[in-house]
Amino acid sequence: MPQLSAVTGLGRGFDSQLRSNRIALAGTALATATYAGLTFVTDARLLDAPIAGIVVFLGWATGRELDPDRPQVAAWSMLLTFAASIYILPSGIAAAAALVAIRLVAGTVGARVTWLDVAIFSLLGYASGSTTVLWIVAITLVMWLVTGPEAGRLRYVGLASFVAGIVAGAVLSELATADITQNAYILAAVGGAVMMAAMRPRAVVSPVDSGSGHVDPLRVGFARKTAGSFLMWAALMGGVAGFWSISPVLGALVATAFAKWFSPGA
After folding, report:
1. What is the rounded CA–CA span in Å between residue 252 and residue 255?
2. Quick one: which of 243, 12, 216 has its CA closest to 105?
3. Is 100 in contact with 121 (CB distance < 8 Å)?
4. Cα angle at 166 between 193 and 239, to 5 degrees?
5. Per-residue DSSP letters for the chain?
6. Phi, psi of 190 (to 5 degrees)
7. For each of the chain's 266 residues, which pLDDT tens digit applies?
8. pTM
9. Angstrom distances, CA of residue 263 to CA of 22, 48, 216, 258
10. What does residue 202 show for φ and ψ, rounded to 5 degrees?
């Protein structure tokens, strides 16, 4: 929505009159109810049911960023995210940070990203205390500095945030003593393989939210690379738990790869 894009370059409006958006709301409610029902037959906690609904919605939103032209990708992403949530419930904070990060790189809002946007996004990663989120912030800022023409003079802010993120990540994750298991390498390879399968978008015709033009296919391609990088680094730095903490990104990327190979024009 133009009103929101005039305030921030990271937020997107939500029009409930659009069919794909109504599907998102219905899917979120259904995921919450289904997860609540599963608590009677599994070890899942009832208090986690709302979180399951939120992360399923985040999976939908991430799918919309990675493939703006095909709403069905977002719907598939919801199903995959819910299936992954039954196995291990992902982190709402990490999934939200990944969504905002992918949106920043994809440029789907089409509005000028302000210094406040960058500062808030960076602080989200630092305040979370999560190694996965810290790496999400660091990788995103690199991708944005490379691809975002709206960066302008904010490149200096982004560079400062990136350096701070790397330092904080190194301190919190204790890189020198990190124990990377064989499972972590396997999951990182899975993330890389899905990323390659999703590359690259042939064309993107969807307009940006600000109404100033169309989404840049090159930036959508970089957003898919960013999503794959998140998965690989989450596996290497966080192990199995880190990888599944951003399963909405995995669901969206798998759905995007499926559309890439089986939908015309993807």
Report:
1. 5
2. 216
3. yes
4. 45
5. -HHHHTT-SS-----TTSHHHHHHHHHHHHHHHHHHHHTTTSS--GGGHHHHHHHHHHHHHHHHHH-TT-HHHHHHHHHHHHHHHHHSPPPHHHHHHHHHHHHHHHT-S-SPPPHHHHHHHHHHHHHH--HHHHHHHHHHHHHHHHH-GGGGGGHHHHHHHHHHHHHHHHHHHTGGG----HHHHHHHHHHHHHHHHH---S---PBPTTSSSB--HHHHHHHHHHHHHHHHHHHHHHHHHHHHTTHHHHHHHHHHHHHHHHSTT-
6. -60, -45
7. 445 655 666 777 777 788 888 999 999 999 999 999 998 988 889 999 999 999 999 999 999 999 999 999 999 999 999 999 998 999 888 888 889 888 888 888 877 777 777 777 777 777 766 677 777 777 777 777 766 776 666 667 666 766 776 676 666 655 555 567 888 889 889 998 999 998 878 778 888 877 778 888 888 988 898 899 889 888 888 888 889 989 999 999 999 999 988 876 55
8. 0.84
9. 23, 35, 20, 8
10. -75, -40
CA 71 to the chain's CA centroid = 16
Say which residue the tokens 């493939």 belong to: 67
- Which residue has tokens 């975002």? 148
Tokens 């979120």 belong to 28
Looking up tokens 């759905």 gives 255
